[in-house]
Every structure is written in structure tokens, then in C-alpha cells.
Design brief:
31 strands; Immunoglobulin-like; alpha+beta; 13-stranded mixed β-sheet; Secre_tail; FlgD/Vpr Ig-like domain-containing protein; about 600 residues; FlgD/Vpr_Ig-like; 3 domains; 9 helices
Length: about 600
């Protein structure tokens, strides 16, 4: 199959005005700067990808995210709401130096070519933002895109003082960038107004334009171009959707905020509060120096590791007695985890999603009402919990040096007390269910949490020290250090892309990939001598990054005709006898050189006027 892909990226079919004829020009362009802006709005969950990975809440895991034994939803959930706009992400790379060194993910080097007939090729490397494993970061992927574009049907807007012609511009097909862009009409009776005829908030949110800078007021030679487009996720643009046409873009949130001053300030008020070595996840900070500035605050998303610490509880007031972690020094410790984890294990998971934990449902299936079933499982919970904490806290009721049957006998009486408490809490929770302020699942979760905390209180009345908040986890007990998880937040994206390019010469390429050559070959140009155009053919036995350049006999490079990936096949490149600045070369001998992967070759040609 003969595939024509004229390499004259962003060369334009320039239309004419009654006052001025703007010449049709072909050429090859090199990007010298770019600014990309991403706006993300939280969206509803729409796709299968969302149900698998999507969430609106931040979580933290212990001992780490990769090997989590326990994952905790952070206070204040949900942390993202549908319709919220995340902070805008800007990628400003305004100079060639910034393109080379501005991103840690690699250098950016992009060439673009278009034909007057609307064909387009983009090759090289380009900045992007991607979410991988629920972590969003800048990337510099390789680009090799054959597409099409349109300048629309309107005459360009001419600035005769600055020698600039502004065209509507739209990529119509692309395997990488937005599709179905609408070229804006800037002139004539159909001139369009942003915000009314096109732009965000209208029916044409995907649109573009290009400013073409000419070398002089004849508008015959292009010096450079500046492109701008806006595009949003959707089926038409092919951005941020899956094969079923469902929105599936996620923002990977990988950090939180916190502080290292809250516990220091509270310790001054209550010396029983221990000060750890890690920050408090979600802490807002305290003014330790009394200078009206919160100290040691870590802004999002820079906090990765920290403690869960809550001295306020549901009522939002300090030390009022409703704090779930008050018996473990207000820290989420190993002892607290044992209590929470044991109640979850005893109740069981909710595999069928009916709002009733499976073990509880099994007990109820034996004929017990919900309150009696809770009572029974609360006793089971206690009998499973206290031996764990007894060992962890070196707890020995009869002081015989062992956790033994005598200890079990002394502790068994508390099972009934735990069950009675669970029944009382459940009754109050079910009142809220009847009023419609809670679901049954929420009532059961709240009951389980309350029972776990109450059990820690009972252990305290038994003379057992359950507060293990004076040290980090040591393999037995202590404060747990959590890692903030990467989470996938469903988003809707708007991209604003603004690259600028220098004209680096005129060239076009025809590729025949129907027959794969047996070996590499660079052929004599034809015709030779030539005036003003000639063709250079090269055979590639395999796909390779290929660069074709032209040099004068002084060893100075005058133009790059192509720089980018080419597939295996025969490729014929047209050369119009112009240099990087678009100026016609003088008569004489020139050298053309091709480098294609491991292959390279050089030949001579003569321009004769």
C-alpha cells in the first residue's frame, strides 16, 4: 500500500484576502517552546474502570501501601466532590533549554510536518501528564503520529504591521492528540466570537488557531508559527474515554497534608500526649512561637508517611471523652488496630453487599434477631480480643507470669458486659436508621467501632495498660506509621496546548511499505542536477529513528529534512532547495546524509539555476 505522508508539519494552505495574496508554503518545523495547561474537574463514576479503581476519598495503609495489612479512610471523607476543580497543572517550557532540561522525565524534541493537502506528521518526544498505578506525573513519551488537519474555509486575519496571518486550525484525525478540532473563523460575515460561537461553555469546546509569522510584508516566507488549541475529554476528541465511549480518566492522588506541631502544642496542655517522630496526617498545625504563623505544616501532596492522631472525636472538641482512640493516647496504635481488626473479623465481610456482615447474617440465620445476634458476637469478639492484648501488653491478671486459664477465667465475665453494651449501642443506632439519618450498614459499623473502643476501656479497668502511644511500632505494639495510598479520582479534563515552532525547511515524504527491502540503501537524488526540487529515496529493512540532513561543502548543516521514526520500506523525500530559514539556496554542490538506527550513508547533489 502506498501511504502518502507529506512531512511539512503545520504548513498551511494559506488563503488570500482582497488586499493581499498569502502564498501557499510547504516546510518542516521544529518546536522551540510549549505551554500546556490541564484543568481537572471531579466527575461522576461512569465506567467499569471507575468501579474498579475510582474513589473520592484518601486512604492510608499500614505497614505500607504495597503490602497493606490495614487500610484506613482518612478523616473528612469524601475528600473530593463531583464538580470540584483541582489545582490547575501548568507545564511551562518556554525555551529550547527548558525543553531539553525542564522535565526530569526526559528531554523534549518535536518535529512537525504538514502538507498543503491537509496531511500531517508529528515525530519526536512531547510532554504529557499520565496516571499510572493511581499516581499522576509528567511524562515525555515518544510520538510518531500520522494525522490530518484543517484550516477551515475562512480567509486568515492579517496583521500587516507585524506580518502575521491568523488562521483557524484544527487537528481532524490523530492517534495521539485530540480529534475533530474545529478551526475558528476570524474574518468575514461569519466571523466567530469566543464564548459565544466556540470555547468552553459552548457547543464547540474543541477548537484551535495558528499564528503564522512571515519574514516580511510580502507574506511569502514563513519564519515561525504559534499554535493554540483547547480540547476536552469525550468521544469526538477520543480523549479520556474507553472503547465503550465512557469517560475513564483518573487523577492519581499520591499524598496528603499534615504537620509536626500539633502534638507538641497539645503536650504543653496535656503532658500525657506523646510527641512522635513522624508528622500527623491531616494536621493543620499549631502556632508554637506565638507569631500568628502555623508551624511545621506540610502542604499537600508532600506528606507520604505519618501518624493517625485524633484528640477531638466526633464533637470536634479536645478531650471531651468521645474520642475513639483516647485509650491509646489518641494515636492509632497496634493495640487500637487489634481492637478494630478483631471486631471486623468477628462480624465478617459483607460479600453480597446486603449491609449485614456475613458472620452476623449466619448467626441471624439460626433464628436469632439482630440484637441477640450482636450480643452473641460481641461476646465472641471479647474472647478473641483480650488474649491478643494480654500478650501484647504483657498482661497477667493473677501475676503468675503467664497468660493462662486462670487469666481466662477472670476475664470471661466481661463477655456478658460487652454483649450488653453492644445491644444498647445498636438500639440507639437503629433509632437513627428508623429516622432515616443512618443506613443499617452504617449503624452496624458504628456499633462495631463503639464496642471495640469499649473493650479497650474495660481492659483499662482491669488494670491493663493498653496505651502504647509512647513509641513507634516495635513488632509487638506502638504507634503505627501509615503510608498515604495512591488513589484514582475520576476526573474530566480540559487541555490548553500552546506550542511554537521555527520553520526549518521544506520537505515531503512518500512511503511505500508494501515491500520490505532486504538491506539498507541511500539512492542518488533525482533529478541531479536539480532546480528547484529533487527527490531522495532511502530503503529501510527495519523501522528506525531516521534523520536526513543537507550540508554545504564547508561542512555546515543547512537544513534537516526529516527527524523521526520511519517504518520499514522505501521512503522518498522531496527537497525544495531551501535552508532552515526558508531561503532559497545558491547554486553549487551539497551533501545529503541519512542516519537510520545503526545505518548511515552520505551522497552528493548539485543545485543548478
Amino acid at each position: 500500500m502506498n501511504k502518502r505522508s507529506l512531512l511539512c508539519l503545520f504548513l498551511f494552505v494559506v488563503t488570500s484576502t482582497p488586499q493581499l495574496t498569502v502564498a501557499q508554503l510547504g516546510g518542516y518545523y521544529h518546536m522551540t517552546g510549549v505551554n500546556v495547561q490541564y484543568t481537572y474537574v471531579i466527575r461522576p463514576m461512569d465506567s467499569a474502570d471507575d468501579s474498579t479503581d475510582g474513589t473520592y476519598s484518601l486512604t492510608a495503609s499500614w505497614p505500607n501501601s504495597a503490602n497493606a495489612l490495614y487500610t484506613h479512610t482518612l478523616p473528612g471523607a469524601p475528600h473530593f466532590s463531583v464538580g470540584d476543580t483541582l489545582p490547575i497543572i501548568n507545564v511551562p517550557l518556554h525555551t529550547p533549554t527548558a525543553l531539553q532540561y525542564g522535565l526530569s522525565s526526559g528531554p523534549i524534541d518535536l518535529y512537525m510536518s504538514v502538507s498543503d493537502e491537509g496531511q500531517m506528521q508529528i515525530t519526536g518526544t512531547y510532554p504529557a501528564v499520565a496516571a499510572v498505578d493511581c499516581s499522576t506525573a509528567s511524562t515525555v513519551p515518544a510520538v510518531n503520529d500520522n494525522g490530518t488537519y484543517s484550516l477551515g474555509s475562512c480567509d486568515p486575519l492579517i496583521d500587516s504591521t507585524a506580518n502575521i496571518a491568523t488562521f483557524g486550525f484544527g487537528i481532524t484525525t490523530s492517534g495521539i492528540f485530540a480529534n475533530q478540532m474545529s478551526p475558528v473563523c476570524f474574518t468575514g460575515p461569519n466571523a466567530e466570537v469566543e464564548g459565544t460561537d466556540y470555547g468552553i461553555g459552548t457547543n464547540r469546546t474543541c477548537w484551535g488557531k495558528v499564528d503564522v509569522q512571515y519574514t516580511d510584508n510580502t507574506f511569502s516566507t514563513i519564519d515561525s508559527i504559534i499554535i493554540y488549541w483547547e480540547a476536552q475529554d469525550g468521544v469526538a476528541t477520543t480523549l479520556g474515554v474507553n472503547t465503550a465511549g465512557q469517560l475513564n480518566r483518573h487523577f492519581g492522588s499520591f499524598g496528603a497534608f499534615g504537620d509536626s506541631s500539633t502534638t507538641t502544642a497539645l503536650h504543653a496542655i496535656n503532658p500525657a500526649i506523646n510527641v512522635g517522630t513522624y508528622p500527623i496526617i491531616g494536621g493543620s498545625g499549631a502556632d508554637l512561637n506565638q507569631n500568628d504563623t502555623l508551624d511545621n505544616v506540610i502542604a499537600a501532596p508532600n506528606l507520604e508517611w505519618g501518624y493517625l492522631f485524633d484528640p477531638k472525636g466526633p464533637d470536634g472538641e479536645l478531650f471531651t471523652g468521645d474520642e475513639p482512640m483516647r485509650f491509646t493516647g489518641y494515636y492509632f496504635t497496634r493495640h487500637f488496630l487489634i481492637g478494630v481488626g478483631t471486631i471486623q473479623t468477628v462480624l465478617g465481610a459483607d460479600a453480597n453487599g446486603d449491609g449485614i456482615p456475613d458472620n452476623l447474617a449466619t448467626v441471624m440465620g439460626g433464628g436469632l434477631p439482630l440484637s441477640d445476634a450482636i450480643n452473641q458476637l460481641a461476646g465472641t469478639f471479647w474472647n478473641a480480643l483480650w488474649p491478643q492484648l494480654a500478650t501484647s501488653a504483657e498482661f497477667d491478671l493473677d501475676n503468675d507470669g503467664d497468660v493462662d486459664a486462670a487469666d481466662s477465667t477472670l476475664a470471661a465475665g466481661y463477655a456478658t458486659q460487652i454483649g450488653t453494651y453492644a445491644t444498647t449501642v445498636l438500639a440507639s443506632q437503629l433509632v437513627q436508621v428508623a429516622l432515616g439519618s443512618l443506613t443499617q450498614a452504617e449503624a452496624l459499623t458504628n456499633t462495631g467501632s463503639a464496642v471495640a473502643v469499649y473493650a479497650l476501656q474495660i481492659l483499662g479497668t482491669m488494670g491493663i495498660t493498653v496505651d502504647d502511644s509512647d513509641h513507634d511500632f516495635n513488632g509487638v505494639n506502638g504507634r503505627l506509621v501509615f503510608q498515604i495510598d495512591n488513589v484514582c479520582v475520576p476526573i474530566f479534563s480540559t487541555q490548553r496546548v500552546n506550542p511554537w515552532f521555527d520553520y526549518v525547511g521544506g520537505a515531503s515524504i512518500e512511503s511505500d511499505e508494501s515491500l520490505i527491502p532486504n538491506k539498507f540503501a541511500l539512492f542518488d537524488n533525482y533529478p541531479n542536477p536539480f532546480n528547484p526540487t529533487t527527490q531522495i529515496a532511502v530503503d529501510l529493512p527495519e523501522a528506525a529513528f531516521t534523520e536526513l540532513t543537507v550540508w554545504n561543502i564547508m561542512g555546515q548543516k543547512v537544513v534537516t529534512l526529516h527527524s523521526g521514526e520511519l517504518n520499514a520500506g522505501r521512503h522518498t523525500i522531496s527537497f525544495d532547495g531551501r535552508d532552515t530559514n526558508g531561503k532559497q539556496l545558491t547554486s553549487g554542490m551539497y551533501i545529503y546524509r541519512v542516519k537510520a538506527g545503526k545505518y548511515n550513508a552520505t551522497k552528493k547533489m548539485t543545485l543548478m539555476k
